[in-house]
Structure formats: structure tokens, C-alpha cells
Amino acid sequence: MRVWSVFQSDPIFSPPKIPMNTEEEKRLTAKQLVNFLFSGLFDGIHDMCYREKTLYLMAINEATEMFNPNLSIKFALGISLFSNALLCLGTERHLPYYYDVWGGKILSCLAITELAHGSDTKRLKTTATYDHSTQEFIINTPGIEAAKCWVGNLGKQCTHALLFAQLVCSGSCHGLHGFIVPIRDPKTLIPYENLTVGDIGEKSGLHGIDNGYIMFHNYRIPKKNLLNKTGDVNDDGEYETEFSDPQRILGAALESLSAGRVAIMQESCNSISKAVVISVRYAAQRCQFSDSNGIELPIIEYQTHQWRLFPYVAAAYAIKSFVQKFSDQYISCVVQSQDGQMDVDQTSLMVSGVHAIVCCSKSLITWTCRDAIQESREACGGHGFHKAARLGDLRNNFDPRVTFEGDNTVLLQQTMNWLLRCTSVNEDYYSFFPLTCIKYLQNSKQILGRRFNGNRLEHVICHSFISQTYEWLVCWLVKATCERIDVLKTQEDDKFKIRNFSQVFRGRTLALAFAESNILMYFWDHCNTCDDELAFVLKKLYYLYGLWSLYKHIALLYQGGFSSSSSLSELISEGILVLCSELKPEVVSLVDAIAPPDFILDSALGASDGKVRYKWHVHVQ
Amino acid sequence: MRVWSVFQSDPIFSPPKIPMNTEEEKRLTAKQLVNFLFSGLFDGIHDMCYREKTLYLMAINEATEMFNPNLSIKFALGISLFSNALLCLGTERHLPYYYDVWGGKILSCLAITELAHGSDTKRLKTTATYDHSTQEFIINTPGIEAAKCWVGNLGKQCTHALLFAQLVCSGSCHGLHGFIVPIRDPKTLIPYENLTVGDIGEKSGLHGIDNGYIMFHNYRIPKKNLLNKTGDVNDDGEYETEFSDPQRILGAALESLSAGRVAIMQESCNSISKAVVISVRYAAQRCQFSDSNGIELPIIEYQTHQWRLFPYVAAAYAIKSFVQKFSDQYISCVVQSQDGQMDVDQTSLMVSGVHAIVCCSKSLITWTCRDAIQESREACGGHGFHKAARLGDLRNNFDPRVTFEGDNTVLLQQTMNWLLRCTSVNEDYYSFFPLTCIKYLQNSKQILGRRFNGNRLEHVICHSFISQTYEWLVCWLVKATCERIDVLKTQEDDKFKIRNFSQVFRGRTLALAFAESNILMYFWDHCNTCDDELAFVLKKLYYLYGLWSLYKHIALLYQGGFSSSSSLSELISEGILVLCSELKPEVVSLVDAIAPPDFILDSALGASDGKVRYKWHVHVQ
Q1: Is B249-598 a domain of CATH 2.40.50.140?
Q2: 3 state SS of B372
Q3: Pairwise CB contact (< 8 Å): A617 & B144
Q4: Which of B113, B551, B616 sits opposite A200 (nearest CB)?
Q5: Residues of chain A with CATH 2.40.110.10
Q6: Low-confidence spans in chain A with pLDDT less than 50
Q7: Where exactly does CATH 1.20.140.10 map onto chain B?
Q8: Which of 305-324 (A) contact B at CB < 8 A?
Q9: Is the whole-model pTM more than 0.90?
Q10: Tell me: the pLDDT tens digits for A292-333?
């Protein structure tokens, strides 16, 4: 892949040889960004169609994130997401910014979150009030709690912000709109007057990103800086919007809402792979303790170690196959909606469905990845704590993903809402993507009648058990959540409170269980497209990921009456151990197959030749 | 407490105002150590008796660790543990080192772990071969895999190592012994010849500690540097050991093995408290989303948020009450064994029992604390990722505890072994501490006959349900583990392998379930010593921690036939939610009660006055 050669050929991208403080890391990342932008990777980008361009940028993002998450984020915020948003929300008059940002003349940031409000975007308080006398918007921050903050690139380096503020015109507020707001002189990087802007200081990771805050003190920008695709101020100084083409608005919303989360899922695939590659390779060559004959065993031979790591190897495969296919479907949806191939109803159904699936999948995947990284770190023992093991940096740089682009806990509620709404949708719609994923909800009554009567391992280590049990679980959780809501309705009028008190053990679990079942469905389909030899191993990974995920829900399987026999728990747990043991010979070669190019793991603890390459050996002279 | 005023009065202890790299952090910690040692805190230390001195040093360690974990670890490795080990393993001839280290003339490190072996200490390969002709030991490192590594203080600053090496004399190896080995000239800190010594480089946390590696190239030290309490080389050059006083050896072993883990448990109490104090205070004042009347709610009002955090508040209390009482019992045991108040059998029973309880408790507590920190970080949303929230540093500095002083996974096996051995111990011994903790194993048969038939919340929110269910669970897991071992015996001769393949869902879970039940037992006893008003709240925390912990084992409760009714899972989960909701008004005041002094949390996100004090507000001018 061309991006690797860029990183390999320019020493600016090499990991620093001496310890750096966070200020130095920020400067380094800024320099890297310039070389990255002018590396030639993006030369043909403006001639590509939407699909081609998106896939190309996604691939580059994945590769870059794997190598240097600071750089990929800096690039996304400063260039690719900004230029994307311009095309989505702006019109022809904004095209110069598009070319300037790709030409390295300006650098952007996306200013949405405020100090007091992140998830609840409706409460954002920054205003952009139209002054017809000067044809300007006056941007103002009403108080410290409305300071834009956490904005990546804003701390020290951006020249322009894509600002989201409440548009006020003729005394009325028309909701959040996007504006292009100059922040710093592109030549000197000195901030303009009437702004209070700076860096928020040190964080737990992503030290190369200059996250910043800003307060606007009646700061004026030209009227034309409003991104006016969905609404504008006319020559009379009145706000106007045309709803004649709503699917385009919806499509735009889908694009800007979901794209970031899809990217996070793609990045997570690589993060989980990196983590398990490091820990499994280490386990294959690290020996500790000996059997009764005095022969030292590689720690991968230990049951506990297999059980700790192999389910994450399985998860890495399951997630990867889901994300690849789903990303593709997602892009097709955007293209279809942009091309006007869907009617309003279809677009609306598609947008809400894709959003719901992205919400629960992003949550499940980032949490799984978080846990895989920590388990890998611990499975490498003390050595896992060394910087050269890369697991500490991986953890700290990965960590924000569980709360950014939507806090996972908040996102899960969106999926729950969608699933409950879908129970009353027109039957015909179930043949329409992505409602195809929950077609089985139609047969809920029949599914809830299922009972487990197995008594042998092959009754659980099979596709039908896993898929049917998950169908039962999702249907039961839909029913149980609805019942909980009904009970709450007799005690409480406030819909908001009712929803909040039907989350734990109910709506929240429903969203996660649905995400698991959906990923498993995609993974199974993928297994069946592979040749027999590969499918044989992949299916074992499918069973392992399926049983391991189901084991977390056993309480509900008993609680809902899916089984009252001890054999359910016994067989699932036994199945997990048997699969781990059977997979042992495969896993080492599997992790090599999913490993990113060698040089990325150069400094990782384990290496593909099975020998330890402790980077810090070089200190020993 | 006097230690706070030391930290407050000397600016060297203030958190650095500008970003530092890891080299700078190491230098700062070294300077802090000097001021700490000469702060006057340790002036009377040599006149204290063992009990008084140990409690005093433990208290100082706890406070220091809370404030600055780098300093507490540097002090422990460099001074307190070293001087302790000298008294334990050395004799009068080593006293000068004792006074030198307390006098700041020398600084030590504890060199045990080698590159290829940590947990398996029997395989350590560094040798100390006695040369009778010169009355010296020749220390040698046979290969890179035997390089001592990860040794704190060794990287740059220590002058002496307390080295553990295989003592070879007259051609025979007599096992690991402790030696005092000069490493650097105390005046210049230049290493002596025939040593390859250096810093292992950057880590994921504890950046203030200079962890190092060392290889010895036939490096000679005087014979008298052998710590000779348990064995020595006589004037004829022969190795001698006297086993006439074995309980003293055992007592010494107990002291040196368990003391570090007890300290980790004490430190964990503070770490979990810090984490939940930060996240609960934040939740009490952070508002997000509004009810149907448009009133914004503090996020602590949300069911999901309560369920995420309150069990960790309960765990903080449960763990604290266990660790306080158990530490005291532990010190009493050491004193009794040192004073010769126990016979050999009693000492041996006590040593192995205390070791087993420490092993599983250290594992459970550090994992619980790890999870509490991460949940707290996520519960603070994006702001939890800021350095000022302290949760990132807390996570990275706490993290090594799950693998150091015994990898948790390895430690759990020790507890399992002990529990299985105890099933065949003489009945009389059950009245002897710490076997009192598992007295109920005697009634295993009767306990395993218990069944759950409850159908109301009060049947699970009560002491008898929690304690009796845990007794059942521990007894069942003992039985199930033995059965698994018996089955494996029919397939496999190797005892080592049999043990390894009876861990997951069995021995490992047994050790953790026992640790939980034991902590709950201590916590309940503590609740009953408090006045009614306090006990009322503490008991709710007991129920919450109990039910929340039991919920994780529901699969086994069904699998073992403790219940086949859906109400078990239903009532436990409902009980958790009811307790969370009931505890809400209390929790905010509770976290203030466990909060460390205010200035420690100065830069934390939430503050006791209920207002946000984002430290980085100072940037906004």
C-alpha cells in the first residue's frame, strides 16, 4: 500500500528516539501533517467520484491511524472532514476553502462541543446573530459554559473553524447551522481580535493533538460564511429554508453524523488486531513454569491464557468482517440517497436504521477493543507495561473513542429507541436495508416460544444454536423493555424519565445484544463465502465469539425461561474451552494473517519469526 | 496528618506546571525523595517497635501513594522495603547499610525479576559463586535472558542492589539468597566496572521511576554481603544452614512475601476512592439533557449512571473495611510468629492461609480498582480524558499493580490450591486464623443442599441471602474444581497440566468468589460495629456490593442447581437497581466522607462545593 512507503521514506514519520513532552509531540504532529498532505497521496483526490474518494480516504485513514493516531486525527479534523462538510453543507461560494485546505493554505477545526454540553447538542449556546446593516453574522459566547472546547487543532494551529452555532435572525433562533470562521492569520498563526482562544492542556493520550477552547466576543464574519445548503438569509435579511428536497438534507445528515462513527469502527478493527497480535505472539514464545518433566511451557499452552486472549482474536475477525461489509453498504446508501434513487420514506427509514446500527456497533466494538487492549497488556505481564510493547499508547490513544463521536451510553439509547419503534413498522419495510437485519422481529411470538433442550456440545457449537438463541434474546429484550416501560407508565408521566428507567438490564442490554447478533450474522455470511479450508477455521472463530458473547447474557436466558436446565450454562462454558483448545494451533498463524505490515510492529514485543525482539535490548551494550 | 503538611509546605512536591518528559519526571522524583527523607517524618522511626513502625510506614505509604505514586514507590524500593529486608534476611553485620539508607547516604533497589523469568522465581539464573580463596562471591549473568530487569531505581539512581541470586558453593547450588551488591559510586553515581547497567526506557506510567536492567560480568563482592540469617558460608568455605528455628524463617518469608501485596491492597483502597469521588462529584453537578418540562438533570439522576458508579462506591467501602482489619491481623500474626508464640504447625498454617487470602484479595481488589478507574473515566465523558481529571494518570500509574508483586492470574492459583488443600485439613484447625474464614467448608454437604425459593426483593436484599449464597457458591466451586481434576486425572498424568486445565470457570473463579465472600464477611462485621445511622447506609452498600458481585456468578448458580427459577436473576438485578436508587441521596455525602484531603483533588474535575473547578479555566484570560 502506497501509504506505508510514504511513512517509510520520510524520517519525519519515524517514532521519536528521545522522550518528548506533550508540547513537542504537538509540534511534531503538525510537521508530519504538512509532509503527509504533500506526499502525493492526495494528488488525484478531486477527480474521484464520491464512492471512490470515500473508500480511498477511509483506507488511508485506517492505515494512518494504525501507524500514528495523532496524525490521522489531525488530518481528519483539519482537512478531510472539513472539506467533506463543506461539500455537504455548503454551496459553490465555499469552494475556495475546499481548495485552500487541500492546498495546505489553511487548516481547520470542527467546533461543536461546548464546555457544558456535548451529547445534548440542542443546548449549545453559541449564537450567530445576523446584522442586516453590515451583512455580517455576530458570533457570541454567552458565558464560560458555552465556550467551545475539546476542539482538536484549535489549541495552537488551526486558521479556520467550522463552527456550529444557533443562527439568530430577525429576533428568531433557527437552530444550529455551520459557519466558516477565521481564527488565526494563516501567515503568522496569531489569533484575530475579539477571540479568547487557547490550548486546553494535557490529556490522557493523543498528545499530538492541540485540543483547544474558544470564546467569541461579538466577533463578526461575513454573511457568505454561512454554510447555506439547508437554509440561508435572503437579501431582505430574512431566514429562508426550502424543504422541497428533504432526502438530500437527510442524506447529508446521515453522512455527517455517521461517517465519523464508521471511521471509528474501521480504526477499532485495526486496534483490536494490533493488541491481539502483540499478546498472542508474545504468548507463543514466552515460557514460564514447567510441567512435571521440567519442560518449560509457552504461556499460550495455559488454558487461562487461551481463554483470556482467543475470544478477542475471534472478535477481531468477527468485527472486521462486519465493518468491511457494512461500510460498503453505508457508502452505497449515501450514494443512492444523493442520486435521488430513494423516495422520502425510504431515505428516512434507511437513515434512521443505519444510524441505529452504527450507534450500537460503535459502542460494542469500541468497548470490546478497549477490553482486548487491556487484556493483552495484562497477558504480556510486566513487559506489557513497557512503552515498546505499544499497548499503553494503544490504550491511551484508543480510549477517547468510547466517549467521542457520541458517548457510548447515549448512543445505545438511540438503538434501543429504533428497535422499539421497529416493532410497529409496516411489514413491507422489513425487506428494505437495513431493516433486513431485524426481519426476525416479525416472528417474535414464535421465537419466544423456543426452549433449549440440548445436552451435548454439538448442540451449542453450531450456527443454529447461536443465531436462534440470539434471536430469542433480542426478541425477549424487546418484550421485556416494553413491559418495563408499560409498568413505568403507570407510575410516571414523563416520557424522558420512563426511558431512562428502562435502560439497565433492559434497553441498554438490548442494544448491545442486537449489535452482537448483527455482527455474528455478517460474520457467518462471510464465513460462507470463503473456501472450505479457511471457512473451517473461521467458523470456529464464529462459534467462539458467539458462545463467549452469549455467556455474558446467561442470566437473561434463565430469567426469560429460555432454559431452566443446568446444561445450558455447562455446555456454553465447556464449548468456549473446547474451541479455545482446538483453535490453539491456528491462532498463531491467524494473528500473522491479520497483522499490519511488519515495520509497524517493529518495536512490539513479539515478532513474526517467533523470537523476542525487545526493542530495549539496544540499550544493553 | 503530618505527611500532608510536608507535601503542602515544600514546593518541590507541587505538581509540575509545565509538561515534562519522562527523563524530567525521573529527576523530579529523585529530588522529591531527598526532601521527603529529610522532612522529619522518619526521625523517630528507629525507636519504634515492629508493630508501631509497620503501621506508621504503612500509613505514610498510603498517603504518599495517593498524592504521588512515583514517590511512594521510589521510597519503598529505595529505602523502606530494603531496610525491612535487611532486618528480615540479614544479621548484625548488615546494620551499617540500614543506617546508611535511612541517612540518605545510599539508595537501593530490589533486583529479583529477570528478563525471561518473573513469576517463576525458581528459574532465575543469576549466580553468586563463592570463591574461598578470596572470600568473595562472584556474581554472574549467564545470558541476556538472565539480565535483571524492570528493577525500580536501578536505571539511573541506585547505589546498591538487594540482589537475589542462586548461591553456588563447592559446586552445589543452594537456591536463591539475598546479597547486597554495590552498583554505583554514591558520590558520582558512576557505575562500577564489570557491570552493564542502564534504564529500560519509557513505560506506560510511573514515569518518575527509573526502572533498569543489569548484567553482571564475574563481578566480585565480599562474602559478608550475603544476607545470612537463613544460611551462610562457614570459615571452611562450606554452605551451612540451621533449621533449628523454622518458624522464624517462615515468619520472615511471610513478611517479605505478603507485605508488598498488603501495601498494594491499601493503596488500592485509596485509588478506588479517588476514582469514585471524582466521578460521583462530577455526576452530581454535570447536567445533560432535560426532562419533558425542559429541566436539565444532573447525570447522577440517570439509572444507567447510578448503576455504573454506585457499585464501585460500595466496593470502595467493602474493600476498605476488609483491608483495614486484615492488615491489622496480618501484623499481629507476624509479631506472634516473631515472638515465638506459635508452634511450627500453627505458623505454617497461618503463613499459608494468610498468603492465600492475600493472593486472591490482591487480585480481586486490583481488578476492581482498575475497572472502577476506567468506569469513572468514561462516566466523566470527554472531560474524563483531560489530565486535570486525574483519571488517566490514576489508570496508568495503577495499572502495573495487576501484574507486579505476583501476576494476578498466577496468584489466584495459589488461593485455589490452598482452598482445595483445606478440605482435607484437621477439623480443629478451623478455629485458627485465618482458617476461621472458611470454617463453613466443614458443612459443605449441608450447604450444597441449599436452594433458592425467594420471590420477593427482601429475600435477596438481606445478609442471610448474600452470605448463604456465597457459601453455597464457594462450596460448589470447590466440589466442581475437584470433580474437574478427577476427570482430568483419568486422561493425564502430569499434575501440573491437570491444575492448569481446571482453572477457567473453576479454580480461578473459586479463588475470586472466595475473595468476594471474605471481603463481604469482613464488611458485614464492620457494619455491625457502627452506630445505627451509619450502619443503615453501610448495610445498603453491603447489599449492593454483594448482589452486584453475585450477579456475575449467576450462570454458576443456575448451573449448580442453586435455583432453576427465573426469579433468582430477576430479583438480584432488580435489587441492584432498587439499592442504587435508594442510595442516591447518600452517595454524594459518602464520597465526601471517603475523599482524601481537598488539596489532593484540587485539580480534579469536581469539587466538594458542588461547583465545577476545571483547572484549565486558568488558561482562559
Answers
A1: no
A2: helix
A3: yes
A4: B616
A5: 108-234
A6: 598-621
A7: 249-598
A8: 305, 307-308
A9: yes
A10: 888 999 999 999 999 999 999 999 999 999 999 999 999 998
